């Protein structure tokens, strides 16, 4: 079987040409129509090495993704809502030589040009996702065609997707959950059905309006549904499968979802971008009465996929049944776009250090938290150090600390505390709008005369957490 990412779509296009492949922004395309549009656009991308895709939740976005792969280029998704300075930084760091975007009228536009042609190999890059970096600069994670093929071998046949299945496309293309959405659906002949951003705030209504059979999202969206009071028993009868990942999944929350979708299998998935979308899974028993209990009320992340190996290292670096989760295997990326970012992320033997602290309970992995200052907020991976670095660059700010604090709905949001001279929270918020994407901007900024220190003279994050979380 070919390991080129586009071939997973092409095989379905050959077999299911008249079946719906994509529904987005009021337009539906069959596999044949989607392939024709992608082939036409691919002809204009000849010779491109890395293609930036500045489009979101539109036909251009998904046609452009396939076209770039068909042309043998690596896809670099860019979010139009991110600050222009951040987009420029990613374009430069990725070495993008061609940009696909949309005109205000919705037409596809190509910026710059590429010439020549190139042969494609399994170890060539299929896509690059940029994640938050602790130094204040996003880190590029290149995933090869071989990495993606190893992932799809594990998950593509797992969820009973077939022609007629309607698979949610909830994730932005800059989030690697979208890779699952696209290729698990398209490799099996299903339809990728993409909600508009506002629809995600009402998940139950969206599931029913779009007649979805397969749902994949961060668990935070359950909170939106609960807030609306829409998680009534059997209120989502079309769902066959529900997947949750991207952040810790509270058992209480997913129990409410299961009540609303009693005919749906529920699976928890986990994986850093560096391991190609997900690398472990845990399928909850059909009867919630049989669900496991965990020390922190968080659903297990399960077991590794068969092609992967895992190792837990304690604080002394010794293998243990509790510690930092390390992984290796064909889904593991080869290293960051900037080799300087590799420092400290790999252990001898080819192990990738995830920074996630886990334990083994009844043969499955339980997530216990992080070993560093990285957090997940509504599925987005955020290095608190990056937020802090940007805050310290603002006029008047002497020092800054960012934290993830709990909300009333059981999820988390970013909060920050700063010290300095003439700092006004509203002005700091406005300044961050030109520097950080929306998901990385603290919802609250508190100005203090001085940040609290512990006995060692370091900033007392525990004291700040208690203050900012109250």
UniProtKB/TrEMBL annotation:
- Annotated InterPro entries: AMP-bd_C, AMP-bd_C_sf, AMP-binding_CS, AMP-dep_synth/lig_dom, ANL_N_sf
- UniProt domain AMP-binding enzyme C-terminal: residue ranges: 386-458
Domain of life assignment: Bacteria
PANTHER family per the record? FATTY ACID SYNTHASE, NONRIBOSOMAL PEPTIDE SYNTHETASE
Q: Where is the AMP-dependent synthetase/ligase domain?
A: 9-337
Q: What GO terms in the biological process aspect are recorded for it?
A: amino acid activation for nonribosomal peptide biosynthetic process; secondary metabolite biosynthetic process
Q: Which SUPFAM superfamilies match?
A: Acetyl-CoA synthetase-like
Offer a single GO CC term for the protein: cytoplasm
Record organism: Saccharopolyspora antimicrobica
Molecular-function GO terms, alphabetical: phosphopantetheine binding
Q: What is this protein called?
A: Amino acid adenylation domain-containing protein
């Amino acid at each position: 079987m070919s390991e080129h990412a586009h071939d997973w779509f092409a095989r379905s296009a050959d077999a299911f040409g008249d079946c719906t492949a994509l529904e987005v922004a009021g337009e539906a395309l069959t596999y044949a129509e989607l392939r024709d549009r992608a082939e036409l656009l691919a002809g204009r991308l000849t010779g491109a090495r890395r293609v930036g895709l500045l489009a979101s939740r539109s036909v251009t976005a998904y046609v452009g993704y396939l076209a770039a792969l068909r042309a043998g280029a690596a896809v670099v998704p860019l979010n139009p809502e991110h600050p222009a300075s951040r987009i420029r930084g990613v374009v430069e760091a990725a070495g993008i030589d061609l940009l696909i975007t949309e005109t205000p009228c919705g037409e596809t536009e190509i910026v710059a040009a590429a010439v020549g042609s190139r042969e494609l190999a399994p170890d060539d890059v299929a896509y690059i996702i940029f994640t938050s970096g602790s130094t204040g600069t996003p880190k590029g994670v290149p995933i090869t065609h071989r990495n993606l093929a190893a992932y799809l071998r594990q998950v593509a046949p797992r969820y009973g997707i077939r022609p007629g299945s309607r698979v949610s496309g909830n994730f932005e293309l800059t989030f690697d959950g979208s890779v699952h959405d696209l290729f698990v659906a398209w490799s099996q002949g299903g339809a990728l059905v993409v909600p508009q951003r506002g629809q995600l705030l009402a998940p139950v209504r969206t599931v029913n309006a779009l007649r979805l059979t397969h749902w994949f999202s961060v668990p935070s969206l359950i909170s939106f549904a609960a807030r609306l009071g829409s998680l009534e028993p059997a209120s989502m009868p079309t769902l066959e499968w529900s997947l949750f990942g991207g952040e810790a999944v509270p058992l209480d929350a997913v129990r409410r979802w299961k009540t609303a979708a009693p005919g749906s299998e529920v699976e928890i998935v986990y994986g850093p971008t560096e391991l190609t979308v997900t690398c472990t899974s845990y399928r909850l028993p059909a009867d919630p009465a049989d669900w496991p209990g965990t020390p922190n009320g968080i659903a297990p992340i399960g077991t590794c996929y068969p092609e992967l190996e895992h190792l837990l290292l304690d604080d002394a670096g010794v293998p243990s049944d509790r510690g930092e989760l390390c992984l290796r295997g064909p889904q593991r990326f080869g290293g960051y776009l900037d080799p300087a970012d590799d420092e400290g992320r790999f252990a001898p033997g080819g192990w990738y250090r995830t920074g996630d602290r886990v334990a083994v309970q009844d043969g499955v992995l339980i997530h216990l938290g992080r070993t560093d200052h990285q957090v997940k907020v509504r599925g987005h991976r955020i290095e608190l150090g990056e937020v802090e670095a940007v805050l310290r660059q603002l006029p008047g700010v002497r020092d800054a600390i960012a934290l993830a604090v709990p909300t009333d709905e059981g999820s988390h949001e970013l909060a920050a505390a700063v010290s300095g001279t003439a700092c006004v929270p509203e002005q700091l918020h406005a300044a961050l709008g030109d520097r950080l994407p929306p998901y990385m901007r603290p919802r609250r900024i508190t100005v203090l005369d001085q940040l609290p220190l512990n006995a060692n003279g370091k900033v007392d994050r525990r004291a700040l957490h208690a203050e900012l979380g109250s």
